[in-house]
Design goal:
alpha/beta, 20 helices
Length: 617
Amino acid sequence: MSLRRGAPSSRRAAAAEASQAPAAKPRASVALGDLGRLVLRSRAPGLRWRLTAALTLILAGKALGVLAPLLLGAAVNRLAEGRGAAAAVGLAFAGLAVGWAFVRFLSAAAPQARDAVFAPVAQAAQRRAAAETFEHALSLSLDYHQGKHTGALARTVDRGARSIDFLLRSLVFNLGPTGLEVVMAAVVLSKRYDWRLALTAVATVAVYVVVTFLISDWRIGHRRAMNAADNRAAGLAVDALLNYETVKTFGAERRAVGAYDAALDDYAQASIKANTSLALLNAVQTAIMSVGLGVMAVLAGLEAAEGRMGPGDVTAAVLLLINLYGPLNILGFAYREIRQAFIDMEAMLELSRERPDVADPAAPRDLPPPADQRGGRVVFERVSFRHGARSQGLEDVDLVAEPGSTIALVGPSGAGKTTLVRLALRLIDPQSGRVTLDGVDLREVRQADLRRAIALVPQDVALFNDTLRANIAFARPEASEAEVWAAAEAAELGDFVRGLPEGMEALVGERGLKLSGGERQRVGLARALLADPRVLILDEATSALDSRTEAAIQAALRKARKGRTTLVVAHRLSTVADADQIVVVRRGRVVERGTHDELLSREGEYAALWRRQTREA
């Protein structure tokens, strides 16, 4: 059922993204400023000298590109004059021709040398952009990640990082210097020959650029459609692969493949239109350049007929325009890709500018050492919080978890129990009131310090596609082998691990699917115990297990609760009957609290829940 709804929602998301793409296009000056700042903080080795050398090579290459045709023209003129000894004429021609070939080689080699010199800087900038954006994405708040599309977010980071390298190579080192070469060529043609030749060269390039931009702007819509279909296909594929079990158990493989194939068909149709329009662009570009070369040759020929230019000068004038045609030949592709690269980079920068709802304070406080060796003291003081998508939330909740105590949170679904857990972990911040740990407001503490002091065992333990050792040690990667094994033993996982052929090196599969539910719960508990927190949170840690497995894990949990404060969220009341305090939450408010026996004697909400569950049992 979820898969059936997933495809249209993915299509709507992709359509929304495509419709918003034009608005995301940044101003060139702003984007170039962002690009420059990214290069400067790339921390590439030898950044300053590499930048200087690259710019020098660019200027030298373009200057030599203008000089080379002049040398060949001089050689042809010397040969055409034919005055003096044949040997002298031949020697002069040969010298100038060799000089032309050498200068042309230097002009062509300069960009290659520039790429070799600047490549570490470009790669460092690309890596820095990807790492910074990925780090920022991980720092964003829970609400953002609950609403994100994983495949699209991954593509945003990937495309944004790759756009950095493309913009540097195409815009900064190709089209930008080509504009400088046009100016150089126009100055040379005007000063050395005739202003009409310079005007022809500039007009040809101007018409070429304007027409290319107009056609490319028309073609950019096809690229947006391709991107939207690409994002939709990636999102559908990731969703289906992440929810493989759901797809498999409902026999929905054909539906998943059908939705994926429809997205690929949209991509193919947009790609066909893009290729057809590309052929039109190439034909128009060739026609403009051919007309420009023809006009240049006629004007130069007329000047030669009047005796104001030699045969070599005609050759030089035509070669100057041909040299400009080389970089401009990819202008349509480059313009479209640069536009798209700007959009991709802006999407990445927009992600970087997304502000997390939960952030570290400007002047963080250190958590004090626990005053009691039995664990931390957690206090909720008149805490209120309401989700935007819910009609009700927590209201004026007061709760105290003393060191070493076990506090159980019970109540119907949607009552606010999980919200209390997220507040304790500071995944969200209260809209009023405060939550403290050992007397310190959680908003005054670094999140990393807080997460080391509080560990969570969720209902659905998320495992990485790695070894058992890596998953247990994720809480504390520097832990020794003995500490990892001690945590596994404490979670009643030791016998299971010793029974595996690979032991701790056994791979758990995607999201831990090679393990049973009870085994995943034990791994999650071992991971939490290895963190050695002062507060342990168990969020429905056994609700999905059978009675025998639950009993085994409950025994492990009772051991884990010793020496630390524990918050337990439970629907099954029998699992928390031994808690020091049971807090009943209903519609965002604490309606009852006390021990199991006290609450039963009151004949209130808890007693009604208990009778209902025991009757069902």
